[in-house]
Amino acid sequence: MDHRYRRVNRHRRRRQCSSPSSETKITLLTSSSSLHHLLLFILCVNHISSGYNPINMAMAFDLNTITFDQGYATLFSDFNIDRSDDDQSVRLILNRQSGSGIISTDYYNYGFFSAKIKLPTKYTAGIVVAFYTSNVDMFTKTHDELDLEFLGNVRGKPWRFQTNIYGNGSTSRGREERYRLWFDPSKEFHRYSILWARNKIIFYVDEIPIREVLRDENMGGDYPSKPMSSYATVWDASSWATNGGRNKVDYRFEPFAAEFRDLVLQGCPVDPTDATSTNCLDALDELESSEFATITPRQRLAKKWFREKYMYYSYCYDRLRYPSPFPECLLISSEQDLFKNSGRLKTRQKFHRRRRPRRGPRPRRPNTTAVY
């Protein structure tokens, strides 16, 4: 990230459904179990027509959430931070005066960092909401970082988001991917998570593993390995966030509020200056044996579906910036076929606008192709 702030005190298998032939329909209706079969067929048709996709097959994680005070403190602009009465949620506000941010009160030697987030609505161009881990305050020139950054957009176009990985100050070798979402993140809460383990990193959206990076010995210091804190911020990134900076934050729509709740911090709190600490072995074993540390076959199906449908940039396929693939890049043919040598899609992604009732003559159909 370009912005830096000083740290403050601290099942079942789905039955295959297909439309029966006319002969099959007659057989079903005349058999003793015809009613059962007919109801099953109707349910299957409804299931398919309701927008079935592999993402819906993910199972929710069983997580232990914490209150704000149990794990976080103000990072900057306390006057723009609104905590709920029960301390279970927090609103981070951006207005003309400032953005705002929070930070975990501890550093963690690997961990699982998660929150349910609802993003600002209306016109959000130029805004960035970030949920990430970093140690830039302790290691200014050799910091590690794992980013989930949500990029606002002009009215009528969807939020986008990106993930990024930095290790040992490798900001010139950012491992960036960008995506759209299959829902409107400003309408309701969704869970976003980062698993950071000794040999793997997984980014999740609603328990869907959207990205997995396996540690490769050739990565060297590019794999984040120093203790990090968890952060959440909202800020003005008018210079780059939307259409390369062409669309700025419009403060006529302020305040812009990002809401966080059901916070999760699971890992081993450590002193970042004590590089020899070995008191985390049990905590790391527990972390790496948790359900979110292993991607199931069902989740891999959802991950494939998401990446082929919603990812629109990947550094692994960007031969203009990186002629040789990074050591951790696993080139998947079904993904690679979608991208140009620039790492961007060969064809534009499209999204649907909600139609509003209008009076009078039917207007000319607008162009709904999203250009990123």
From TrEMBL:
Residue segments, region Disordered: 349-372
Gene Ontology MF terms in the entry: hydrolase activity, hydrolyzing O-glycosyl compounds; xyloglucan:xyloglucosyl transferase activity
The entry's keywords: Apoplast, Cell wall, Cell wall biogenesis/degradation, Glycosidase, Hydrolase, Secreted, Transferase
An individual GO BP term: cell wall organization
Matching Pfam families: Glyco_hydro_16 (PF00722), XET_C (PF06955)
UniProt subcellular location: Secreted, Cell wall; Secreted, Extracellular space, Apoplast
Extent of Basic residues compositional bias: 349-365
E.C. designation(s): 2.4.1.207
Known function: Catalyzes xyloglucan endohydrolysis (XEH) and/or endotransglycosylation (XET). Cleaves and religates xyloglucan polymers, an essential constituent of the primary cell wall, and thereby participates in cell wall construction of growing tissues.
Protein family membership: Belongs to the glycosyl hydrolase 16 family.
Listed PANTHER family: XYLOGLUCAN ENDOTRANSGLUCOSYLASE/HYDROLASE PROTEIN 8-RELATED
Record protein name field: Xyloglucan endotransglucosylase/hydrolase
Annotated source species: Lactuca saligna
